[in-house]
Amino acid sequence: MSSGDAVDWADGDGPTLCALAVLPAGARVRVVRLACALADADRLRVLGLFEGAHVRIVDRGSGLLLDVCGARLAVGRSLAAEIMVRVVP
Predict the structure, then answer these.
(1) Fold of 14-87
(2) Rounded Cα distance, 45 and 83, in Å
């Protein structure tokens, strides 16, 4: 993660909202909001990537490889930039 991609920390409340796209491989997050087009959000929800879901970033390349409910899901970087999450311990 570059210095421009730093995740802000709220005072004692843990991490603030950030885009999934800025986080490194290995990060564990909880999905807070799907800020993408409605059709994309509906498709992600069907695939298990919904508000409240816990997700782990498995790998980063031209996109992100995610572990969602025990399944692997590849998401493009531009779509990942529209998935708002909070890092979980």
Answers:
(1) SH3 type barrels. (2.30.30)
(2) 12
